[in-house]
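sorry for the late reply, my laptop died twice this morning and i had to redo everyting from scratch. anyway the thing you sent over, i finally got around to it. pasting the sequence first so we're on the same page, its 135 residues, then the predicted structure underneath. double check i copied it right bc i was rushing
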Amino acid sequence: MKSGSRPAQDDCPAGFLLPGVKPGPGLAGPAARYALLMGLRGFIHSIELALRQFEKTIGIDRRGRSVWVWLLPPAIGITVAVLSLFMPGLPADFGWVDRIAIAIFGFFTMTAISFIYLVSFDNDPNQSDDAPQPR
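ok and here's the structure:
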């Protein structure tokens, strides 16, 4: 390699780690993106493990099914809470304190109801992976 010239891709470990990326100051962006994605991947994996442990704790076996379905009840609760803050049909003199109280009530009740439906749906014999038993 000549002095003052850029190193070849073969001379730089970045060419091995990130194919197609030329070494130099432009490497900071892809390397940072790679580090961010690997950190995000680890965070997502830890959430999946926590959700699996939650399933084990409540005694549900969801063989082959996604654990991300457990995020539906809180998502439904949050949606109801936000929408109930701006619900049409409430009187004009209905203050923000009352609206926030309705939003909190809606969050907890809708989260609980959707959680109950999710658990009862999982315990449904029609949803099992087992073959039906002849009578």
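The chain has four helices and no strands.
thats about all i looked at so far, will dig more tmrw
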